[in-house]
Amino acid sequence: MKILDIAFKDLLRFYRSAFAVGMMIVVPLLITGLIYFAFGGLSAGTGRLNLPPLGLVLVNLDTAAPEPALGQLLIDYFNDPAMPDWLTVSTAPTAAAARAAVDGRTAGVAVIIPAGFSQALLTGEAPATLTLIQDPTLSLGPQIVQDLLRLFTDSVTGGRIAASVAGQALAAPDPAAVQAIGQAYAVWVAEAERNLHHSAAPLLAVQTPSAAAEAAPADDLSRIMARITAAMLIFFTFLTGANSAQSILREDEEGTLARLFTTPTPRPTVLAGKFAAVFLTIFVQAAVLLTTATVA
């Protein structure tokens, strides 16, 4: 048939281009492979994303703080058993020692608690600033430490706001009572966080999957890579289709399309052959990519 002859001619012309074949098959496989090797190491062979060990150094310069001493409370907060196993916490006497630990790659993050931190955070009269020093090669671990710091400071700030509201509601506010309300709120937040891990009736029920669910094929990394492969397939399929369809414009510019129209072959047959070539090119691309992804 003339349609197949025209399609075969266009296919030969397309596959003779190394650039076209590379963009059609090699590039999507290369991008998918790079993503796998970049993030596959986080799975540690378990199919689940696991963070590498992170060393955290804390420096408490808020030693002259009145009760409650938030610097020591922050250290106790990071040493809580509920913290993840990949986070290793230690202390340093000075900020210089903490910076040296990060520079020497013995720790990934250092947090410096300045003098007057408790007073500033409890009263709100001055900015309460924590200094976080991180290894520039790390990204996810330091971000989690920063979120934990924000959670701690937000709980203390919430207690201060609760005490302020309670003081405004009382006709004759007692400073001791207001402070007790603020401390009670902070204790409640800490207990609520601890209940998420230890209480028999936590505010948020965290359940471990059953053995049957764990045995089910629920490989997180495999599902992520399958979605990435599907996205690469869709993107490069459209790219290949557009590049193949441009053969009509190229032949029109070169004058070969006009010559084809002067032959006894009807124009619909010529165009049908060219679109058949585009369809077959995309079909071969999808078959190769899906087969490679299945085998890999």
Q: Can you characterise this structure?
A:
- The protein has about 300 residues and is of the alpha/beta class.
- Helices cover about 65% and strands about 5% of the residues.
- The chain has eleven helices and four strands, in the order H-H-E-H-E-H-E-H-E-H-H-H-H-H-H.
- It has helices at about 1-15, 20-40, 70-80, 95-105, 115-125, 140-170, 175-200, 210-215, 220-255, 255-260, 265-295; strands spanning about 55-60, 85-90, 110-115, 130-135.
- Helix 9 runs antiparallel to helix 11.
- The two termini are about 40 Å apart.
- Residues about 195-205 and about 210-220 have low confidence and may be disordered.
Indicate the overall shape: elongated
Strand order of the largest sheet: 2-1-3-4
Helicity, as a percent range: 55-70%
Distance between the termini: 38 Å
Low-confidence stretches: 196-206, 211-218
Question: Structural class, please?
Answer: alpha/beta
| Beta-strand content estimate | 5-15%
> What is the quaternary state of this protein?
single chain
* Number of DSSP strand runs: 4
Average pLDDT taken over every residue: 76
Largest sheet: 4 strands, mixed
Order of helices and strands: HHEHEHEHEHHHHHH
Q: Which value, in Å, is the CA radius of gyration?
A: 32 Å
Number of helical regions: 11
